[in-house]
């Protein structure tokens, strides 16, 4: 798709808006035969900004315009985005007939906008702005504000002197069709695990010393992947011993292991997790339908999930999470509705509902290049049912984020029983908390305040395990220098 922009217009924002209507679309600088073209002009007029849009896709064209006047405190950029967003949205809606529930609100963290609104306005006024200015549906506006309230409450409990730790185990028993994580599932790569653990344990010790030097208090730990329980019992002991033996856990409030795949969970592994102080685990079926599980490459059955969940429940962890995905291949509204009902019957402390997102590195694109075109409106009904069913079952939405190219432009939401939220999830998504990370594909996020505003720096670990094993550069000086400035 070709973009032609005139005026002070955020190019990335226009691309994001277009992709809400045309999933998987790309925007190369030079394209000989584009399927579509978007012309947008923004000009200052009468104290506001007028945006004009001409949107062509295949053999259809829509011409629209929108005028916005900045409210108190609105920057030029925010006013421009409002006008441009409405013009492009109206054109996209006219071309496709789609009503996007998120309106012109793009970005990973819609709840951040909700929190900003609630800090300045009443709930009713904030809701009105989301619906009428950002064009959100009523249900999405209520979701944003509910999450914003819960996130704000959690974040207010932590000061600049706290931090979290993420540990990456990028290995899985098999790779799911939709997966884009840096995870590996071949015998050859499994041979790297001993060396990977040795290197990881060394890095954990280094990070522990860095945290000590910064004077920060470690409040949450999250071991993710991949599937950490791909490791065997002895390997788990090595990893957990390195964590418990290296870090000061005096202030630790939460310790999570993403057990994830039911086919990797055993009582022996869970006993090890309990022994070393893990308090929260995930058991992720994604769907409770064997036909769907087979279609997405999950090498376990619904019965396997129930067996794993029974084992986990017997261990009596403080919190158990289950991950589900809306919009999977062969899933329908009725089958997803059944999944939610069955999960609610189990009554886990957390339920995370993801929207199916197609990534360019996902294997599913190799088998179905038209997957972007198969946007199933039953996914919208499924997400709405999940919200209503979980709320009526005593859960609250406490964190959320959005991704590109999700089915029907839907969101990812974490639900919790009161007092059982995963604090790491909220802290990790915020711009106010430092997260030290170890392992391949992990990102360390450093945060400090300068003149009342957050300054953020990210340090990326080598992407692949074999690159990680070859990397011998210490990040200590870079991290300490950030906090000393």
Structure overview:
- With 485 residues, the chain is α/β, with parallel strands linked by helices.
- The protein folds into three domains: 98 residues, Double Stranded RNA Binding Domain (2-Layer Sandwich), CATH 3.30.160; 46 residues, no CATH class; 282 residues, Alpha-Beta Horseshoe (pyruvate-formate lyase- activating enzyme).
- It is 40% helix and 23% strand.
- It has 17 helices and 15 strands.
- The strands form three sheets. Strands 11-12-10-9-8-7-6-5-13 form a nine-stranded mixed beta sheet, sandwiched between helices. Strands 1-2-3-4 form a four-stranded mixed beta sheet. It has a two-stranded antiparallel sheet with strand order 14-15.
- Strand 7, helix 9 and strand 8 form a beta-alpha-beta unit.
- Helix 12 packs parallel to helix 14.
- It is globular, with a radius of gyration of 23 Å.
- The model has no long low-confidence stretch (mean pLDDT 91).
